[in-house]
């Protein structure tokens, strides 16, 4: 369930040209007006995400009202135009359900109708849309992946302020959802892998109205990282060199509250955004 419209992807430019599908640009615009988007094929993307009530206790343990730390968006962000809750495609890995609640850092009230994007690498450390560039992430790759000791042509771009121009047509482990009245979105994905120089992490971007209001990252307890990365297909790669305590971006406030589920893990966190940009 949820706003899972597989295959509905379109650039902002094509959307303006009247293509009969809907992407992130349309959602951001629609959410600013708090109205649903109806495509020319008659399909409606409702501005409502579905989250199980049993996540309440997890959110209680993850709650805070301190402004969430902002980070660079990193070198692998682009508008993937994928509006769906299950972002796994055919990627193998330990199942991870993420439930994210967005609230106002000043009022502690949920922010409905916000667009939340997430993206992260696969079990082999690769990012969709940038497989060649991210293949320079180090370690011993799983069978069938390119060697990673030396960055190949397509070395990861420097900095993290500009959007990436995709170099392949893959769009796995990327997606966007819209917060419900409780400010919650839910994604189904896999536990991220790792690459050289960074701890295990998930990128998050929150759009409120027409603005990128918050860009941050989510991390995992290292005991859980060790548990998951010892499983296949993660265990095919060795030589992980960066952990939470050695990561330049890591902050304890970025840790997800994670619990085990029968088929994987569930992670929750409250993200405190600052829509009026006054730094509170």
Automatic annotation (TrEMBL):
**Could you name the domain of life of the organism this protein comes from?**
Bacteria
For the keyword Oxidoreductase, the answer is: yes
- What residue spans carry the region label Disordered? 132-167
Q: Which InterPro entries match?
A: Intradiol_dOase_core
- What residue spans carry the Pro residues bias annotation? 143-155
Claim: Phosphoprotein is one of the keywords in the record: no
Q: Which UniProt keywords apply?
A: Dioxygenase, Oxidoreductase
Coiled coil feature spans: none
Molecular-function annotations in GO: iron ion binding; oxidoreductase activity, acting on single donors with incorporation of molecular oxygen, incorporation of two atoms of oxygen
Cross-referenced Gene3D superfamilies: Aromatic compound dioxygenase
> Could you tell me what this protein is called?
Protocatechuate dioxygenase
Biological source species: Amycolatopsis vastitatis
């Amino acid at each position: 369930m949820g706003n899972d419209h597989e295959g509905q992807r379109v650039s902002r430019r094509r959307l303006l040209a009247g293509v009969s599908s809907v992407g992130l640009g349309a959602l951001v615009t629609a959410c600013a007006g708090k109205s649903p988007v109806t495509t020319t094929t008659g399909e409606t993307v409702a501005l409502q995400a579905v989250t199980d009530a049993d996540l309440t206790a997890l959110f209680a343990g993850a709650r805070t009202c301190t402004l969430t730390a902002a980070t660079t968006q990193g070198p692998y962000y682009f508008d993937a135009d994928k509006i769906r809750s299950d972002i796994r495609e055919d990627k193998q890995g330990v199942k991870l359900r993420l439930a994210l609640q967005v609230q106002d850092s000043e009022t502690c009230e949920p922010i409905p109708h916000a667009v939340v994007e997430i993206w992260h690498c696969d079990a082999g450390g690769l990012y969709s849309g940038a497989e060649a560039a991210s293949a320079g992430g180090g370690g011993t790759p799983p069978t069938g992946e390119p060697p990673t000791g030396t960055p190949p042509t397509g070395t990861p771009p420097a900095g993290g302020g500009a959007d990436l121009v995709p170099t392949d047509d893959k769009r796995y482990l990327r997606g966007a959802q819209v917060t419900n009245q409780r400010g919650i979105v839910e994604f189904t994905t896999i536990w991220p892998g790792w690459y050289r120089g960074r701890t295990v992490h998930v990128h998050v971007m929150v759009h409120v109205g027409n603005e990128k209001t918050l860009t941050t990252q989510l991390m995992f307890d290292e005991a859980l990282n060790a548990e998951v990365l010892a499983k296949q297909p993660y265990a095919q790669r060795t030589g992980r060199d960066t952990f939470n305590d050695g990561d330049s971006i890591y902050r304890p406030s970025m840790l997800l509250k994670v619990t085990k589920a029968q088929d994987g893990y569930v992670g929750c966190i409250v993200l405190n955004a600052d829509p009026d940009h006054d730094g509170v």
